[in-house]
Write a structure and sequence with these properties.
Blueprint (H helix, E strand, L loop, with lengths): L1 H5 L2 H17 L2 H21 L7 H9 L13 E5 L3 H12 L3 E5 L11 E4 L2 E4 L3 E3 L5 H9 L13 E6 L2 E6 L3 H12 L2 H20 L7 H5 L1 H4 L2 H12 L14 H12 L17 E3 L2 H11 L4 E4 L4 E6 L5 E5 L4 E4 L1 E4 L3 H8 L5 H7 L3 E2 L2 E6 L10 E7 L6 E7 L11 E6 L1 H10 L6 E5 L4 E2 L8 H11 L3 E3 L10 H15 L5
Parallel strand pairs: 1-2, 1-13, 2-9, 6-16, 13-21
Antiparallel strand pairs: 3-4, 5-8, 6-7, 10-11, 11-12, 14-20, 15-18, 15-19, 16-17, 17-18
Length: about 500
Amino acid sequence: MAKFLLSNPLRLGFVIIILATMVYLIPEYQTEILFSALTMYTLALLVANYEHPKSTARIYAEDALEIDMPTTGGEGKSVVVVGGGISGLSAAKYLIQAGCDVTLLEQREIVGGNNEPYMENGEHLSTTVIITLPAQQPHYLQLCREYGLEQTPHEFEDQKGSIVFEGRELNTKMGSGVSGFLRFIYREATLKELFDGFIIFWKFYRQFKFRPESNKSVAEVLGKRLVNSTVFTHFYMPWVGINTWCRFEDVERQPAHVFASFIFEYALTVDIRDKTAKYKEDHWCVLDGRLIHAMRDDLLSNERFTQSLSTKVGKISREKNGSLVVTSTSGQDWSCDSVIVATQPTQARPILDEVAPEILIEELEKWKEMDCYVLFHTDFSDIGNRPWLHQTHKNQTTGNYYITNTIKPIMGDLNAKYLITYVYNTENYLDFKANQMDESTIVKLYEPKLPIFNLENSVDRNTVWREIDSQCTDVFWTQACRSGLQYHNNGIVSAKRVVRGVLGHDW
């Protein structure tokens, strides 16, 4: 539609006349709402027809393209993979596919990483449920299909979730797109919030289009007033911040292009990626921990694979003959030709110090660790029958606001017996347990050690990593956050690229 209007000045002029007529004929209050909604819709159409050349969306597009994985070339080569999350398991899979002998070391008693699954009474359960669009997780879905796991329910997009702030509840649909978003703000937003929301939308769009990856934070793009506005703190922050792995207090310091990318592509489902990289499905998918179990079982059945659980790596060193030695904290050694460290950056940095190229060490030092808690529980008192619930709470001790995200996996063949709630910051976690839920309902707790994204480690990621990987010969690091966002698809993509490097191929 945008191209239709912009291609002909007469058409655009006609639309302007219609809008002017509405301003004259319709009562003032309704006119302001209607005009703002139409303006936002027009902006969204402009975004939909613009392919960003260097933005985070372009990185998404690159990371959605197929990667040719070698099936030979690893014969006689031994590789140690440190870390049994989705990146480490994927790396092991593709190394073995190429003929390598692989040893996987995992410090916990179970593989899975941030998607830490377990079995209960024969059921595959997980402390992470991934709710996504197929175009955003194509490599993850490809693996699901390879193992016969079809997890693509349709009904989720028709269910309303809620954003709750101090008793005020805003209802909207996940993945409702631009039209759904406009219906939402027309029903729920105040006039001031409507105008502030429009200005925020426009500022992000302008930044995203003309300076897609400049070193600007959310606060620098919006300004102090908008960052502190009700619509930003009560709607944008809990909705976007919780899904970009960022604490409430850190959102305004987050890279603006990451925040904006989530608004346009994920929340509003505006398609701005390479159209050839998009899978045919347009509905939302729900992914659970069964893929981890399937990959683990497949690896264990291969004679070229061994794993050692409850094994924490203490250091990696290099022998005089050039071979590598991985040493656990208990003193056990593994000699190998190459090492792939598939842990979070703060975990990888100390064990790579002696052997990794300087450019990799410098990159790892940019990443700081966030204190994040994931609760697996049965307290349904707040969420009710909704599939998801974003809540803003006031810390009873500090007086600061914080957000939680609760997911109820009721879609497809997933069982809604448990809820999953994410809480950031230790003091907020303690407040949440004490004041917001029944502690007796907690089934499982884990701390994923997530990285904090900032301007330094979130700009032009693929260009940066092409340079880093080109200087790595036998020591590599693979993680989802290499791409600037902590998505499982990116973890698999990084594993594929690193495996190609181990086998002597470029990206």
